[in-house]
Amino acid sequence: MTLRQLVPAALSAAVLVLAAPAFADGQSDTGPSEFPPDPFPSTYHALPSVPTLIRHVTIYTGTGIEIDDGDVLMKDGKVAAVGKGLNVPAGVLVIDGSGKYVTPGIIDVHSHLGVYPSPAVDALSDGNELTNPDTAQVRAENSVWPQDPGFNTARAGGVTTLEILPGSGNLIGGRSVVLKNVPSVTTEGMKFPGAPYGLKMACGENPKRVYGSHGQFPSTLMGDVAGYRQAWADAEAYDREWKSWMKDKKGNPPARDLKMETLAEVLNGRVRVQMHCYRANEMATMLDVAKEFHYHIAAFHHAVESYKIPALLAANGTCAAMWADWWGFKMEAWDGVRENIPMVDAGGACAMIHSDDQNGIQRLNQEVAKAWAAGNRAGLHIDAARAVMWMTLNPAKALGIDELTGSLETGKMADVVLWNGDPLSVYAKAEKVYVDGALVYDRDDPKTQAHSDFELGMMGQTGGAQ
Amino acid sequence: MNRLSLYIGMTLAALAAAPAQADTYAITGGTVYTLGAAGKISHGTVIIKDGKIAAVGADLPVPAGAKVIDATGKLVTPGIFDPQSQFGVDEVDQVAETQDEALNSTRYSTAFDPADGINPRSVLIPVNRMEGVTRAMVAPAGGSSVLQGRGAVIALDGLDGFVLKDPAALFVTLGEAGKKLAGGARDGSLLVLREALQDAKDFGANRAAWEKAARRPYALSRLDLEALQPVLRGEMPVVVQADRASDIQAVLKLAAEFRLKLVISGGAEAWMVADDLAKAKVPVILNPMRDLPEAFESLGASLTGAGKLQKAGVLVAFETGDSHKSWNVKQDAGNAVAYGLPWLEGIKAITLNPARIYGMDKSVGTLEAGKDADVVVWSGDPLEVTSFADAVFIRGQAVPLTSRQTELRDRYLPYVKPNPPALPPAYPSH
User: Fold this and answer.
1) What is this structure's pTM?
2) Does B296 reach chain A within 8 Å, measured CB to CB?
């Protein structure tokens, strides 16, 4: 811990990559799962694309580097080259980016689009299975309504990848799903190929209020923690049973228990824990629980008091996903400060923005700008290019997809946004948005602006991002 | 802490020693947006004396003894006026003990006025005023009647006389929220409003008969009927929550019938009836960042709505719907500008226009001699999310750029830097 405390912020990325497997130790098993494969496999295919070169543009690479008058080449859905004065290959579409900016596509680790869609009517609200404090067996993807118009407005805001989570009413809310933000009739058609599942868990006030108010367990924080621990203890036993059967496969396999299966996959390091948690002391408690049961918490979400414990987060290789300025709506959010993200970053931990909101997700660049400016006002002096990591590479790390996307590095998915100005400005707009090299949104071309089925004929195509 | 805020901090320490003493200030060298007849003044000077703006002009002489605020390279505007806040009546949203913003009562409706329940020491007030919010309408929010009650305009200085105008407006909820309260149909909520206005009118004209119980019974209590009298005289604005275009048109009709001074709040689809609103001179308080069909009554929400309303001649003011971060009206306005509202109109929508809506523009909302000195010096374009207030004056007093949030921040900042203190943060020694 003390060693990592001293690691300069710039190196924390490397530390995190090393730290994550180390914490999936003990019963960790990175080989094939003993459980059946994904019942809802991705059918995503990159949309058609043409090789594209954006030239003379200011690039925030997502790795903390700013390149002025740079070029980005996208080919076959990948980032083919990033640099200055690139050659113009034959047959490439050239876009003059003078005066404009390029960033990696924005990644939001905390969205309820599709599970709490617009319009917000009861019939479409499927984000919280509030019938038991542990519903590890449910999957957000089975609630996602791909016609949520919010996917389109988020895309117009530069969001190319997002994690859809169950709500926070349960101790263990169920599996999340990571989506590519492309229009699709099916949820499977949006599923990010190769992205690990997440498990939504929640600390604090919500679960104890939801169940406590019905006179059920849990009604206190100590009830919350006992609930998580018993769930993990049960999952350990279940996993042992399966592993034992796997040795010789004699007799019938153990009965499948979908709840236990998801929890066992966390213990085996295949499903990543994404945990709603506000207070510093509760985050510390959860890190202890994770040690007890040998699993890793990928990120604390909301994490309003992260600024009090960045060293602890860094030592555990756990990220914090935060708002720029939300505070005060409940007791556990009372200690919010505007410098949360920059203070966590300065303290050496993996920091990022998140939205948890269908409006905020459209302007995550502005939210990053607010947090960045607040940090600078407090004397933290963080570069703009580093702040851009809070909405690109760091969320990719939290989702375990940072080798695939999240930065403009050769070979990565060409998830790219061309901005008409500095994205850390209120006036900047995403002008062109690419997912896997395909132009999925162009502000100047209505033909590339998707509208959901829901919007058809409702208002004569008014509304939405215009 | 920059030099300017340090200076203001010291000034305030001096003020605290002699609170009755009003200092004279000269803000010099900045680009001053007066929002008045003088327009924009480069190298402008704003002189503040005895709580008022004493003079505004280019390179004015600095009065003897004035404290000088160098605003070179900065922008100077009137302070932000939140047109629909819950300052002082909402502390922690989910802690009912700290909530005084809504009345759940069958006995009173329009008479409810949170003014006397306002806590001027609310934590939310310093958090917002250090970001440039200087004045606010404190309005009821929620409650069991479509007739929510009245609101008061306050100064965010927490000093004596901080309630500046009370009652300043009546608040009514129509649309989906209103119909839920009125029995499940939109017309029900309009009936409640209509009956209240008719009864209040009858009551006003027949008080003596009513006192002798020689009048038909009214739907509202005596205090509620009294509260509606200035509304019927067209003196007090009625702020009606409505999003759907047809709801707005329905209440426009009712307002014309009773000659109400109507203001629309919410207004997701107001741009669709912009011409009707302009013709009736009805202002709209809205959050211009709403663009999703979040409800069946806001299918037409659009980022370009604010710009279209302004272009049609409708007075617009912006609100965030969250007093914890009311300063984000800056971001509201910036986004409205990005989608077509002229920049200066964006500034007015968060400063002057709320003052006009509540009939206070004679005393505040512009930087002109004789006005209350609610003045903000900005590090850059106030609508930009990376700009901050470098100095804030409310009624001529410099306010500290500190809050519970900056105290928390400063307590923990040393621990995110190399060589953190050895003792726990709870000790005030560092």
Assistant:
1) 0.94
2) yes
